[in-house]
Structures are given as structure tokens and as C-alpha cells.
Design brief:
By secondary structure, the chain is mainly α. It contains four helices and two strands. Strands 1-2 form a two-stranded antiparallel ribbon. Helix 1 runs antiparallel to helix 2, helix 1 packs parallel to helix 4 and helix 2 packs across helix 4. The longest helix has 34 residues. It is elongated and about 65 Å long.
Length: 122
């Protein structure tokens, strides 16, 4: 992977993953929806990398005779998907911890960036 493709994944789509994780947590949806939407967002990241920087794209490898090797394109997609899903899951957990403590202050207290516990328990 080149620097431009990683910058596209981390900066543009990493920011979108943060917003996605926040939105899923704010609406009390389950965590696994981050994986589903992250996989779709990774397809968009791969397409933009293909269109702008001539990067690998697994759909082009399937349908075009002059496309790159499918294994390389699939590996690039999986790397992007893992990065995007990890960022969105982190944002989801941070937002959920903040939301639990702010919405139920008589029940829970913050135990760090990602967690909360019942008040009165050590």
C-alpha cells in the first residue's frame, strides 16, 4: 500500500468511521452494525483509491482482463476494512461510555475512556 492510499484510509475514511461509530452509539444500536457499515465504507475507500491513485480494486480484478491480481486487491480491501472497523468500534465504545454516564448519573460512574461501572462498587 502506498502512502496516498493509507492517508485516504486514515484521514478521510477514518474520520467517517468516527462519525459512524458515534452515530451508531447515539442511537443505541448494537456494536456489530459497525462491522457491517465498516465493510461498506471500506468498499468506498477502495474505489476512491482505485479511481484517484490507481490502487487495487477487487471488483476490477474480477470483471476486467487487465485488472491486477485478485489476491492483492482482496488483501488491500481487508486491511482497509479492519482499519475502518477498528476506528469505528473505538468511537462507538467511547461514545457509549460517555452516554451511559451522562444519561444515568445516579447509576454509573466513569472508569476510564472506554468503561463505566455501577456507583458504589470498587
Amino acid at each position: 500500500m502506498t502512502f496516498s492510499l493509507l492517508a485516504l484510509t486514515f484521514l478521510l475514511f477514518g474520520g467517517a468511521a468516527v462519525l459512524m461509530g458515534n452515530a451508531i452509539a447515539e442511537t443505541w444500536r448494537p456494536w456489530w452494525q459497525n462491522i457491517t457499515y465498516g465493510a461498506l465504507l471500506a468498499i468506498a475507500a477502495e474505489f476512491l483509491g482505485f479511481a484517484l491513485f490507481d490502487g487495487p480494486f477487487f471488483i476490477d480484478s474480477l470483471v476486467s482482463s487487465d485488472g491486477g491480481p485478485f489476491g492483492e486487491a482482496l488483501a488491500a480491501y481487508l486491511v482497509d476494512a479492519v482499519i475502518i472497523c477498528a476506528i469505528s468500534l473505538l468511537a462507538y465504545r467511547v461514545t457509549l461510555a460517555r452516554k451511559m454516564v451522562s444519561q444515568y448519573p445516579w447509576l454509573y460512574e466513569r472508569t476510564g475512556l472506554l468503561g463505566w461501572r455501577e456507583k458504589g462498587r470498587a
